[in-house]
Design brief:
The chain is an alpha+beta fold. The longest helix is centred in the middle third of the chain and has 21 residues, at 55-75. The protein has two domains: 11-75, no CATH class; 84-179, no CATH class. Strand 2 and strand 3 (114-127) form a beta hairpin. Helix 2 (33-50) packs antiparallel against helix 3. It has helices spanning 11-28, 33-50, 55-75, 147-152, and strands at residues 96-104, 108-111, 114-127, 138-146, 166-170, 175-179.
Length: 183
């Protein structure tokens, strides 16, 4: 009786899954980059060694190599470039920042009667006392709202607790609260 050879299903899906798992572990489990390189090369060579005799084992080793490569790449990435001119503007004077939102965080409770909403911005230009300067950098803006002020503006609010069961969504014109249903 012969076994019919069929190609594996979704090989790129499995490779992407193992690669992303490697990235996730690489962020949380730091090891020297040389260790990751040696392990990935060892897994790759072992996969080549077993490809003829035990193809299922070689496929598992190849997926392990993708995992190790993901962990390696997340640990050898470079730090973000910071423009040194940004430190000159940190003297306490009022500046106007022009930029665009690159990530919006979750609205969370920051105290018994307040909420905070973090927003990450990439700057395009910064205007200070002098002329406008084109400075590219990341800025985290945190918008804090007091619940009483929201109630005075006619927004219906509920008890805000530290678990974040109440979320407020601010879009510049309206404030939309969302209450988690707890049973």
């Amino acid at each position: 009786m012969t076994r019919e050879l069929q190609p594996g299903r979704q090989p790129l899906l499995w490779a992407a899954l193992f690669f992303s798992s490697g990235i996730w572990i690489g962020v949380r489990a730091w090891r020297p980059a040389l260790w990751w390189v040696i392990a990935a090369v060892a897994f790759g060579l072992a996969a080549v060694w077993f490809i003829r005799e035990r193809s299922w084992f070689a496929k598992g080793l190849a997926l392990g190599a993708w995992f190790l490569l993901g962990a390696l790449l997340v640990q050898v990435r470079g730090a973000l470039a910071v423009d040194p001119r940004i430190a000159e503007l940190a003297d306490g004077s009022v500046v106007t920042v022009t930029g665009h939102v690159i990530r919006e965080g979750y609205v969370r409770a920051s105290g018994p009667r307040s909420v905070r909403h973090p927003v990450d911005i990439e700057t395009e230009s910064i205007e200070g006392v002098g002329p406008s300067e084109d400075i590219k950098c990341g800025v985290r803006l945190t918008i804090a709202e007091v619940v009483e002020r929201l109630q005075n503006d006619g927004v219906k609010t509920y008890r805000t607790d530290m678990t974040g069961a109440v979320s407020f969504y601010l879009d510049g014109k309206t404030v939309t609260p969302e209450v988690a249903i707890i049973r």
